[in-house]
Design brief:
- The complex is a heterotrimer of chains A (about 850), B (about 300) and C (about 200).
- By secondary structure, chain A is an alpha/beta fold.
- In chain A, about 25% of the residues lie in helices and about 15% in strands.
- In chain A, helix 3 packs across helix 18.
- Chain A is globular and about 80 Å long.
- Chain A starts with 14 loop residues before the first strand and ends in a 6-residue tail after the last strand.
- By secondary structure, chain B is mainly α.
- Chain B has a three-stranded mixed β-sheet.
- Chain B is globular and about 70 Å long.
- Chain C is α+β, with helices and mostly antiparallel strands and about 200 residues long.
- Helices cover about 20% and strands about 25% of the residues of chain C.
- Chain C has helices at about 20-25, 65-70, 95-100, 125-130, 145-150, 155-160, 175-185, and strands at about 5-10, 35-45, 50-55, 75, 85, 105, 140, 165-170, 185, 200.
- In chain C, strand 2 and strand 3 form a beta hairpin.
- Classes of the chains: A alpha/beta (about 850), B mainly alpha (about 300), C alpha+beta (about 200).
- The interface between A and C is large, with 75 and 68 residues.
- Bound molecules: ligand MGD (2 copies), iron/sulfur cluster (SF4) (5 copies) and molybdenum atom (MO).
- One iron/sulfur cluster binds near residues 85, 94 and 95 of chain C.
- One iron/sulfur cluster binds near residues 64, 65 and 105 of chain C.
Chain lengths: ~850, ~300, ~200
């Protein structure tokens, strides 16, 4: 019959293989249909409670990645010694043997000479277990802005607050959801596919959503209220709201702050806790009107607020200290900073605290929890700034005023992986802060070993962008070696780091670059040897990464034979380790990061070589027991389940969580002692503060240096960074959406400057300038220009794509001045001048 | 917002806006043009007993119109399928009319070529020309019905369109008929009244065209937008210049001049002007056909 | 016989285009052709403005102008209401394309099937999928008839992250679609075209 068919392949043909999506870091469960050895369809795995059978557009485009025409399918070496954009590397295909020999030779030489001379850019969050390779090689260097362009301050603060890695509001019970600079549940951040469903359900049951963003994002478009705000000033808005709660309304969760945090601990003039002979932190006992150890004073006698005289010395509770700080942060003043009207600040604060239902409780599995259905969620946009630590602390403290941390309806920590929250007792009845979860904090060292000065960031996240300053002026930082080689693995540092010009200069200086990647990018085109990796549909791993509501691993497994002569990254790195003679140390390290040391019977024998399958089989059995081995996962796909209330709510149990971050101040003081002793005199310590307040950052000050506008970057559902732009399936869609068709500018602003859609404009920041076509829209703050990742690409080998314009990061500065001195987080907003450089060719 | 008022160029289909139909191009325009012109010429010549005109008209339809259609089809070899659904499709009906015209038109013409021996005797012989004539008449205006039968493109979706198409077909037929008579010195006796007729037609077409635009510029937004495209937008030059000035005004002036100066040589430029206007009209009407923007009722303007 | 239809809840929809891509991979349509797509529009003026998202696909009109316009009978309506094109009958006259008020007819121009998305040769997936298409013919959204016939939901429906797309029988008494259409503010696209769409939208 005239077939009722769109395709000859029917859903019941071939086989459906369970696996895990690799189009972004999070890893939704997928089922892949394979017919005659060809992958023909990817669908969400309905049995996986994470994404419940849903897939975002990128996940739906997975096949295009597997069969992408831009993929490199054989090892290659460059024949043209000249390097740089536009220069043809003169690639020739070579055998793996030759590729390994060249690479191991070149890197081996560096290693013998000084392993620190290797710059490493490792990406791929789904394979964190491989990130230790440089350490075994001997290089401490981190040459990428993976993670610190977004979570540089975020992860340390989450880890210090409740042992989490990320955070999200309670999709299930929250009724009033403030979201600042984040696409959670709408376009980006945690597990988009499943989060979008949870957010939609929450909105349908009447949850109110308030979005703060300089741009009318997807979230803003769907929100009950969009509040445009000046970039980098979100903290001011929230400090203003905190002022309203504490000074105007006097509404906050007194009991939570007193019983579950260190807010009542007494603070001395020097910012340290008042301690007794046994160095126990003191609180004010209202009954005896004297300071006494925190653990002997009954709750009802413990003062949350107040300034007291303790044997002649003036002391204040931690809460009082912030309250006094907040006094100056009136909505009026914060309004001038953020451009959000004072009455809006007051209105949102009131709505929020009323919705929080302070005092309410909820029964769950026979346990009673506080019920606080109002919370403030946030991510990259709102705190990837020069004072990111203050931003994060402010947002957390504001949530704490409602007593909503890790309680039903509130602001919930999200663990890094299956291990859940990092909960262990610290000092003074507090939870032990865990600012570092990806690798242990390196001890202080002068001269520094790492080119990004990791030894000088005791609570920070690897500040990759600092390479642009340290490598170009090494003496200023006592850096006593010059890197010569670079390892690129699943990473595009040329693209992802600030100050592109300087990043390029560093690429230029490399004597040898090896890339483990799937295609040629702005970075990998510089490689001397290119080692082609499998795509996610050809490789193997077990993934569990910052899942908002679930836990447990899902398996990535090859669904088809490799399309080309490619290998799995683990194999490649292991082979290189072996050829350079440190495979044994590599195995030892894997034993640690994979947690095999906990159960020695799974430990890798340093003397042996293990296959990808053997590694992940042990990984599975180590966590799930011998019956749930790799074979089991291959059949069942995943061991993902919902987190239980016990796993989700109040993980800190009886331990107190920090309100007054004394340990941050102490860390800063230790660092100052160390650096001063080492003779470093010009290092900034000003962000090592126990409590946040408003102070201008470098970009705010650039406003007075002749750069009136702000420029921001943003993500949308269609793309992962700018990487997926090379996939025509995705870019042909984004190319047809106005917000991805040019530099977004508020139409009124454009009118004022005589700019029309399509005109070419130039943005110039203190660091550099970019050009593009203007796209006039209503949904942009009048002082802000928006640059989608979809127009922020300068090189690909895709025939249909070509150049996509000039790269946003050329506008950013990587130096210490634009870096949070405590966390190493970079400033991801730039101040710019705007000029029209050409008129559009008018259509009709 | 600039991006939204501007006419989007298909297949830019992910943002709100007006979209032009991109499928029916100059080949369809040519087919419609030939259908109207040839049918008009045939019918007029039939009525005024002008065999040469009948033959030329017949050829324009059978060779011109059909070839253009054939060349346009995605699967030309299946062309015959186009006749399958006369019950609902005006194209199918057109195919049938063209088929009938092919047979009966031929039967009407042949005697004039090979003499009486080819005459079909009796009443049958009397009705053959009539059927051919009716088929020609149908061919003259049915493309108007093809275009206006769907509400998809508001600018086309008007009862006046078939009338306009018919009038242009008649005008075209008349012009060409005059040219042929003048050049080949055949049937010149009928020229003076035909010239009169042509002048009236020119005014009438102008009037109907004006009426059409007036109606459209007060109808649904998509129709208004097309009217804007024709009078101010990218198609204004072609429409105002070629259709109105050249096609109607110049034709009128020249043919008035011609009839006063008795200048036969002017007939060619006259035909050129009129046919240019005729053809251009069809092309710009096809090109400027816009779909109504799709948006929620709450946001419809 | 049921009348298959879809309800799209614009309050849920976040304009992510997962439907667009799910349709793309399910049907393997050539470059530039999208049976499913999402039209965005900015409404209002700063700061009282927002982006709206409007997912589009064939309305499977009960009174389908594309079918009326089709001279060859290639376009037909199945008893369950799905409007289909029989590629073996299609002559490529594009009458349906100018007759569809919703631009849901897609013509396979010459050459469309010669180059894949990479801009050159077809990849193995495209080899398989393109085999279903024929140059010079019309293709369109089939409501995933091939899935529906196997008792599955359309590809765009199963993938929709917000479950904004609900597929089923419009006529089923007390059915999910009927209830939503009745109880929420619902409408169909361009009613003035009198096409009786089987795709309904629920207001934000
Ligand atoms: N679709 C998609 N999802 C992703 C990724 C992706 O590339 N694409 N990447 C993953 C990774 S690694 C990360 S870090 C997360 C990032 O997840 P998000 O933080 O949600 O993503 P962004 O778009 O970078 O930033 C969020 C919003 O911040 C806004 N913004 C920019 N500057 C400011 C500001 O100063 N203040 C405020 N209030 N808003 C501002 C932007 O307009 C944007 O709408 O997403 C992850 N998930
Ligand atoms: N302008 C701008 N800059 C940004 C951001 C932004 O939004 N705008 N986001 C920032 C953030 S939050 C982050 S986390 C970073 C992310 O920056 P990156 O980590 O560099 O981004 P990715 O796209 O995840 O990975 C980079 C490269 O991995 C390669 N790749 C993809 N799949 C595979 C695979 O299966 N195997 C291998 N070996 N390689 C593969 C691709 O070539 C891709 O270019 O960028 C930061 N920089
Ligand atoms: S959210 Fe990430 S992992 Fe999930 S489907 Fe989308 S791209 Fe894949
Ligand atoms: S997939 Fe669902 S949410 Fe996304 S655009 Fe389509 S209908 Fe809207
Ligand atoms: S939407 Fe268009 S293609 Fe679909 S049935 Fe209606 S008229 Fe036909
Ligand atoms: S193009 Fe095909 S389906 Fe469309 S009207 Fe012509 S024959 Fe029918
Ligand atoms: S129903 Fe099937 S064919 Fe139609 S838009 Fe959805 S996925 Fe595409
Ligand atoms: Mo990130």
């Amino acid at each position: 019959m005239a077939t009722a068919r769109a395709t000859q392949i029917l859903p019941d043909q071939g086989k459906w293989i369970p696996s895990t999506c690799g189009m972004c870091l999070h890893g939704c469960g997928i089922l892949v249909q394979v017919v005659d050895g060809v992958a023909v369809k990817i669908e969400g795995d309905p049995t996986n409670p994470d994404n419940l059978g849903k897939l975002c557009p990128k996940g739906n485009a997975g096949l295009a990645r597997l069969y992408d025409s831009t993929r490199v399918l054989k090892p290659m070496k460059r024949t043209n010694p000249r390097k740089g954009p536009g220069v043809d590397p003169g690639w020739v295909e070579i055998s793996w043997e030759e590729a390994y020999t060249i690479t191991a030779g070149a890197l081996g030489k560096v290693r013998k000479d000084d392993p620190r001379k290797l710059l490493c850019a490792l990406g791929d969050f789904q394979r964190i277990v491989l990130w230790g390779w440089p350490a075994v090689f001997g290089s401490p260097n981190f040459f990428t802005s993976l993670g610190n362009y977004c979570g540089g301050s975020y992860h340390p603060v989450n880890g210090s607050l409740d042992g989490s890695f990320a955070a999200i509001n309670d999709y299930e019970y929250c009724n009033y959801w403030i979201q600042i600079g984040s696409g959670d549940g709408f376009s980006s951040h945690l597990h988009l596919s499943g989060s979008a469903l949870r957010m939609a359900d929450a909105r349908m049951r009447g949850m109110k959503v308030v979005i703060l963003d300089p741009r009318c994002s997807v979230a803003a478009a769907k929100a009950d209220e969009w509040i445009p705000i000046r970039p980098g000033t979100d903290r001011a808005f929230v400090l203003g709201m905190a002022h309203v709660l504490v000074h105007e309304l006097g509404q906050y969760d007194h009991q939570f702050l007193r019983d579950r945090t260190n807010a009542p601990y007494l603070v001395r003039a020097d910012g340290h806790f008042l301690r007794d002979a046994e160095s126990k932190a003191q609180v004010w006992d209202l009954h005896v009107q004297a300071p006494r150890p925190w653990d002997v004073v009954p709750a009802e006698a413990m003062a949350l607020e107040g300034t007291y005289l303790a044997s002649g010395e003036r002391v204040r509770t931690g809460f009082q200290v912030w309250k006094d700080l907040l006094a100056g942060h009136t909505p009026e003043r914060m309004s001038e900073v953020s451009s959000v009207p004072a009455e809006t600040i007051r209105k949102i604060a009131r709505e929020f605290i009323d919705a929080a239902q302070i005092g309410a409780t909820m029964e769950m599995d026979g346990k009673t929890y506080p019920f606080r259905p109002a919370a403030l969620n946030y991510y990259r946009g709102s705190q990837s700034h020069g004072n990111g630590l203050f931003d994060n602390l402010t947002f957390k403290l504001f949530n704490m005023l409602a007593g909503n941390i890790d309680v039903p309806g509130g602001h919930l920590g999200v663990p890094l992986d299956h291990r859940g929250f990092f909960v262990s007792p610290g000092e003074d009845g507090m939870l032990k802060p865990e600012p570092h979860q990806l690798h242990p904090a390196p001890p202080f060292k002068y001269p520094p070993d790492s080119s990004h000065l990791m030894e000088w960031f005791p609570i920070g996240f690897d500040a990759g962008q600092l390479n642009t300053e340290t490598l170009l002026e090494p003496n200023r930082f006592g850096l006593n070696y010059q890197p010569e080689a670079m390892l690129l693995y699943h990473s595009n540092p040329w693209w992802n780091m600030p100050e592109t010009g300087k990043v390029e200069e560093i690429f230029r200086r490399m004597k040898f670059i090896v890339a483990i990647d799937i295609h040629l990018t702005e970075s990998t085109q510089w490689a001397d040897v290119f080692l082609p990796e499998h795509t996610f549909l050809e490789s193997t791993l077990l993934n569990c990464l910052e899942p908002p509501v679930v836990t447990g691993h899902s398996l990535r497994q090859p669904v088809v034979k490799p399309v080309g002569d490619t290998k799995d990254a683990y194999e490649i790195l292991t082979e290189l380790a072996e050829r350079m003679g440190f495979r044994d140390d590599w195995n030892d390290l894997l034993n640690v990061v994979c947690g095999f040391t906990a159960q020695p019977r799974y430990m890798l024998d340093p003397a042996k070589r293990y296959s990808v399958e053997e590694l992940w089989d042990r990984y599975a059995r180590n966590i799930y027991g011998d019956e749930r081995n790799l074979e089991w996962f291959k059949k069942n796909g995943h061991a993902v389940r919902h987190r239980t209330p016990q796993e989700t709510y109040m993980p800190y149990g009886k331990l107190r969580i920090p309100f007054y971050f004394e340990f941050i101040q102490r860390t800063g003081e230790d660092l100052r002692r160390n650096l001063t002793a080492a003779g470093v005199t010009d290092w900034p310590y000003d962000n090592y503060q126990p409590l946040p307040f408003w102070k201008n950052s470098a970009v705010i000050e650039d406003g007075n240096r002749g750069y009136p506008f702000f420029a921001i970057t943003f993500k949308e559902p269609l793309h992962t960074f700018a990487d997926t732009l090379v996939m025509p399936w995705l870019s042909e869609v984004s190319d047809k959406d106005p917000i991805h068709q040019g530099i977004l500018i508020n139409s009124a602003t454009a009118d004022r400057l005589g700019i029309k859609t399509g005109d070419s404009i130039r943005l110039t920041s203190p660091a550099g300038s970019i050009e593009g076509a203007a796209q006039c829209v209503e949904g942009m703050h009048p002082e802000v220009l928006g640059v989608s990742n979809a127009i922020s690409r300068e090189f690909t080998t895709n025939k249909r794509l070509g150049k996509k314009g000039s790269h946003f990061n050329r506008l950013l500065t990587g130096s210490m001045r634009y870096t949070d001195s405590a966390t190493g987080a970079l400033e991801s907003t730039a101040r710019v001048r705007l000029e029209k450089i050409g008129a559009a060719a008018r259509v009709s | 917002m600039a991006t939204q008022s501007a006419v989007a160029i298909a297949p830019h289909r992910f943002a709100y806006g007006y979209y032009r139909q991109i499928w029916w191009n100059w080949l369809i325009g040519t087919a419609f043009f030939c259908g109207g012109l040839g049918g008009g010429l045939f019918l007029l010549s039939l009525l005024t007993g002008h065999p040469l005109g009948m033959m030329v008209g017949y050829l324009i339809v059978m060779a011109g119109k059909n070839t253009a259609h054939f060349l346009y089809l995605g699967r030309p070899l299946r062309f015959w399928r186009a006749a399958m659904r006369p019950d609902r499709s005006w194209i199918a009906r057109g195919i049938w009319a063209t088929g009938i015209f092919g047979l009966f038109g031929l039967a009407t013409i042949l005697p004039h070529v090979f003499g009486a021996s080819w005459q079909i005797g009796g009443t049958a012989g009397a009705v053959v020309p009539w059927i051919a004539g009716l088929a020609a008449l149908f061919i003259m205006f049915y493309d108007g019905l093809v275009m206006n039968s769907s509400a998809a493109i508001p600018f086309w979706n008007s009862g006046i369109l078939p009338v306009l198409v018919l009038m242009y077909a008649t005008l075209g037929g008349t012009t060409l008929s005059l040219t042929l008579r003048g050049i080949f010195h055949s049937g010149e006796s009928a020229m003076p009244p035909l010239v009169q007729f042509e002048h009236y037609l020119l005014f009438a077409n102008f009037a109907v065209l004006g009426l059409y635009l007036l109606r459209m510029s007060h109808w649904v937004p998509a129709a208004q937008e097309t009217a804007r495209l024709l009078t101010k937008g990218p198609y204004a030059r072609a429409f105002l210049g070629l259709v109105l000035v050249v096609g109607l005004a110049a034709t009128l002036v020249l043919s008035v001049a011609a009839s006063h100066l008795q200048a036969v040589w002017l007939l060619l430029p006259i035909a050129a002007c009129e046919l240019t206007g005729d053809f251009t009209l069809l092309i710009v009407f096809l090109k400027s056909g816009l779909f109504s923007p799709q948006t929620a009722p709450a946001y419809r303007n | 016989m049921p009348r298959l239809g879809m309800v799209i809840d614009l309050k849920r929809c976040i304009g992510c285009n997962a439907c667009t891509l799910a349709c793309k991979q399910e049907n393997g349509t050539p470059a530039g052709i999208h049976f499913a797509r999402v039209v965005t529009r900015e409404v209002g003026t700063y700061p009282r403005t927002k982006r709206t998202f409007l997912p589009l696909l064939c309305n499977h009109c009960a009174d389908a102008p594309c079918e009326k316009a089709c001279p060859s009978g290639a376009t037909y309506t199945r008893p369950d209401g799905i409007v289909m094109v029989d590629r073996d009958k299609c002559i490529g006259c594009r009458a349906c394309a100018v007759a569809c008020p919703y631009m849901n007819r897609h013509f396979i121009e010459r050459g469309f099937l010669d180059t894949g998305y990479g801009g050159d040769d077809l990849n193995p997936y495209e080899e398989m999928k393109f085999a279903d298409f024929e140059e010079g013919t019309m293709i369109k959204c089939t409501f995933c008839a091939h899935r529906v016939d196997q008792g599955l939901l359309p590809a765009c429906v199963v993938t929709c992250p917000t479950e904004a797309r609900i597929f089923g029988d419009l006529e089923e008494e007390g059915g999910r679609l009927a209830i939503l259409i009745r109880e929420r503010k619902s409408w169909t696209m361009l009613p003035e075209c009198k096409t009786k769409p089987s795709v309904y939208y629920l207001d934000e």
